């Protein structure tokens, strides 16, 4: 029986892809988009060039992180914010956007 070898991703060397169980997610295809993002430097370019007039006094996330999350959320098929609430605890999605599970 052929099995998926343990693969390591470039954007986060701590993530190992395998089929031996552990923290599971149905959105592992997102890893391909994050790898592509890293290869072309999209997130770095976004952080460097996205400047919005923002008068929020209290905020946890930067505008570039909010936009990046929305892009990855849409790619994953969660077009509406309400349908994406479950992603806050998804082990794959939190790694893709660079946040830990809450």
TrEMBL record:
Q: Where is the Transposase DDE domain?
A: 9-99
InterPro entries to which the protein is assigned, alphabetical? Tnp_DDE_dom
Q: Which domain of life is it from?
A: Bacteria
> This chain belongs to which protein, by name?
Transposase DDE domain-containing protein
Q: Which organism is it from?
A: Compostibacillus humi
